[in-house]
Amino acid sequence: MLDNNVFIERINKKSRLIGIDPGGKRIGIAISDENKIVATPYTTLTRENYADLLAKIKKIIDDNQIEGIVIGNPVNMDGTEGPSSQSAKDLAKNLSKDITENITLWDERLSSQGAFKLSSELAINTSKKVKKLDENSAQFILQGLLDFYNKKNT
Fold it and tell me: What distance, in Å, lies between the first and last C-alpha atoms of the chain?
């Protein structure tokens, strides 16, 4: 697991990143363009077990030439880390053992609320919003890192 600044230094200028919104059962996935300007919702995976999740993530990485992984870290509003944050760190640690990609954690406070609010401004019914919430949250997380990346590189 890399510090955000080290992560940015290690990824190639022309490369794609994957954003992961880790949940207990549902895992949101988003992907960036190779210029690292925009994050796009990609899919929502269902976590059966770690081996199954790993295989699905590896396939997405291989199919999309992904160079780095950004995992949302659900820090509490007061900055402390709870069980969900520890779970995100465990996922990052496990993926770093099984996938050789660069991995970083991104503070995802308010990502679900932000993604839901953003989709609320669109003409989308509530059941579709909930169905897409995880991948939209992953997009929100990844876009945060991309904005940070672009500020550092201007």
Answer: 25
pLDDT at position 47 over 80? yes
69-89: per-residue pLDDT in tens?
999 998 887 888 888 899 999
Q: Are the C-beta atoms of residues 88 and 74 closer than 8 Å to each other?
A: yes
- What own/partner pairs with CB < 8 Å and gap ≥ 24 does 146-152 have? 146/17, 146/32, 146/36, 146/37, 146/38, 146/39, 148/4, 148/8, 149/8, 149/36, 150/36, 150/37, 152/5, 152/8
Q: Of 150, 136, 131, 127, which is closest to residue 108 (Cα–Cα)?
A: 136
CATH numbers and ranges of domains, the chain: 4-152 (3.30.420.140)
Residue 103's DSSP bridge partners are 69
- CA atoms of 128 and 55, how far apart (whole Å): 27
Total-model pTM: 0.86
pLDDT at 123: 52
